[in-house]
């Protein structure tokens, strides 16, 4: 039972880590905490479902969703987030929450609020190891996290685009002086976050059934993950997501008063505790103010 909960927690945590990576990329690139990231992932899942309904195979449908989400992310940054970032923190929160509602209701209008069957790209079935059942779906989710994590690491550390992103994040004024177009870097960060979030949305939809509000719980757990790991740390998002996923499953199984009904309270408790003990997270950078 214990090891089964660990495996299930890693599977759930991989989804939170993917969504957390998207949140981190937006925050690193533009300083915005995107509360609509889950709804953007949900929209990507609907795009994949629609492309598949038109006759395309699931692999092609997923690629279409990832590509479309990249463009949607850049468009949101250019038309919405860039203007909001010039205002106060409260302005950013209100705008991204408004975007959350707009995407949610638009998806319901276009595809209705009825639950749709989403089979996904992974086959059904499980692989049993030592009495622990590992579904092919879980292996696919963890594999997607590994691919996205390694790809993101190589992008940030080995390419000119990645170096420009790091420079624009750490010192935007100096980056602008050496010719880096910080506005384009911000757009690319949002597009990249949209694509990573699309992977999360497409991979989690077969578990939750496709409907406009399916990502709300995952978004809460993802914010718990980046709170644990640090809002500016991709590695922290991955480790935080896995820790949150495992904690959720263990608490729901072994803490009687939590069970399945109060599992949604686990990420909220984690967020509060981490903000009290270590506000920057495990791998986040502490802000320093000099007099």
UniProtKB/TrEMBL annotation:
It comes from Acrocarpospora pleiomorpha. It is found in: Cell membrane. One of its GO terms (molecular function) is transmembrane transporter activity. This is Branched-chain amino acid ABC transporter permease. Belongs to the binding-protein-dependent transport system permease family. LivHM subfamily. Signal peptide: none annotated. One of its GO terms (cellular component) is plasma membrane. It is a multi-pass membrane protein. The chain crosses the membrane at residues 6-25, 55-76, 88-113, 133-156, 190-210, 216-244, 264-283. GO terms for biological process: amino acid transport.
């Amino acid at each position: 039972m214990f090891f089964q909960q660990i495996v299930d927690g890693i599977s759930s945590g991989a989804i939170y880590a993917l969504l957390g990576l998207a949140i981190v990329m937006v925050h690193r690139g533009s300083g915005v905490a995107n509360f609509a990231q889950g709804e953007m992932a949900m929209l990507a899942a609907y795009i994949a479902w629609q492309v598949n309904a038109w006759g395309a195979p699931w692999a092609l449908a997923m690629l279409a969703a990832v590509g479309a989400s990249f463009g949607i992310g850049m468009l949101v940054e250019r038309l919405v987030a860039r203007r909001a970032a010039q205002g106060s923190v409260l302005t950013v929160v209100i705008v991204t929450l408004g975007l959350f509602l707009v995407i949610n209701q638009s998806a319901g209008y276009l595809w209705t609020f009825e639950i749709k069957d989403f089979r996904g790209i992974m086959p059904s079935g499980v692989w049993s190891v030592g009495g622990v059942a590992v579904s092919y779906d879980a292996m696919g989710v963890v594999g997607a996290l590994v691919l996205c994590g390694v790809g993101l690491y190589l992008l940030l550390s080995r390419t000119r685009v990645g170096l420009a992103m790091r420079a624009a994040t750490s010192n935007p004024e100096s980056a602008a002086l050496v010719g880096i177009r910080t506005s384009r870097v911000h757009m690319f960060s949002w597009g990249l976050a949209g694509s990573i979030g699309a992977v999360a949305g497409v991979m989690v939809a077969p578990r939750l059934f496709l409907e406009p509000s399916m990502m709300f719980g995952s978004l809460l757990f993802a914010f718990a993950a980046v709170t644990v790991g640090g809002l500016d740390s991709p590695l922290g998002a991955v480790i935080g997501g896995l820790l949150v996923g495992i904690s959720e499953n263990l608490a729901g199984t072994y803490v009687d008063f939590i069970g399945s009904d109060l599992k949604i309270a686990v990420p909220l408790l984690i967020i509060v505790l981490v903000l009290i003990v270590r506000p920057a997270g495990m791998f986040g950078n502490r802000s320093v103010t000099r007099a």
